[in-house]
Automatic annotation (TrEMBL):
Keywords of this entry: DNA-binding
The keyword DNA-binding appears for this protein: yes
Record field: transmembrane: none
Record-annotated HTH tetR-type domain positions: 16-76
InterPro entries for the chain: Homeodomain-like_sf (IPR009057), HTH-type_TetR-like_transc_reg (IPR050109), HTH_TetR (IPR001647), TetR_C_34 (IPR041483)
Presence of the UniProt keyword DNA-binding in the record: yes
Gene Ontology terms, MF aspect: DNA-binding transcription factor activity; transcription cis-regulatory region binding
Protein name: TetR/AcrR family transcriptional regulator
UniProt DNA-binding region: 39-58
Endpoints of the signal sequence: none
Length: 220
């Protein structure tokens, strides 16, 4: 995609279209090489824009990926909600959370970079928009989980949903190692325990969490 003669977007629909072009360029680049390896210059080049034109729409590389992370939260929680039914057991709820994360590797990648990277070098407005999205999606999904699995209260379901994304952020990079580690594990299979299966690891951690939450309720 190229735009040798930059034309300023003036109408709202033109501005929205340009934002979408930038976001799509960033998404594709991250899918190809991982979030950590994409610079603002990379995004600008893929979108066919100068960096100065990209920052008219997003103040920084981090803001671009924070928007994509927010969209990921909405998409993921909607996907989990679609799997919820009445009178589910614990295993079914855990599987719904873990499997939908497995299906969204870029969201897991973004989760791993959010607090350490993407929440830095951003405006207060960008931070607020992201946090509102996260808060509203967690509350909405947790209410539905508690309705489907009444052994967990809404507040306990909030903890479970938050834990699911935390475990995803932790396990995604170690279960998808870079080439040198892939080669190391091939040469020394005994070290393979350091590269867990993502779905199994997240499911087990969530099972322990879901089992322990009711047991940790205050007495009385």
């Amino acid at each position: 995609m190229s735009e040798p003669d930059f034309i300023r977007a003036r109408r709202p629909e033109q501005k929205q279209r340009r934002r979408e072009v930038i976001l799509e360029a960033a998404r594709v680049l991250a899918a190809d090489s991982g979030v950590r390896n994409v610079s603002l210059s990379n995004v600008a080049g893929a979108a066919g824009l100068a960096k100065s034109n990209v920052v008219r729409y997003f103040g920084s590389r981090e803001e671009i990926y924070l928007v994509l992370a927010g969209a990921g939260w909405t998409e993921w929680t909607d996907a989990v909600a679609d799997r919820l039914t009445d009178d589910m057991n614990q295993d079914a709820v855990v599987y719904a959370l873990a499997y939908t994360l497995l299906e969204r590797p870029q969201f897991c990648d973004l989760l791993g970079h959010t607090t350490t990277n993407l929440e830095h070098n951003i405006s207060v407005a960008a931070a607020r928009a992201y946090k509102i999205t996260v808060y509203s999606t967690i509350i909405g999904l947790s209410t539905k989980i508690s309705r489907s699995y009444p052994l967990l209260s809404v507040s306990e379901s909030i903890e479970l949903v938050a834990a699911a994304t935390g475990f995803a952020a932790m396990y995604y990079p170690v279960s998808n190692p870079p080439p040198p580690l892939v080669e190391l594990y091939r040469r020394e299979p005994g070290l393979g325990a350091l590269c867990p299966d993502f779905l199994s690891a997240v499911s087990r951690a969530l099972t322990v969490m879901a089992t322990g939450l009711p047991a940790a309720r205050p007495l009385g």
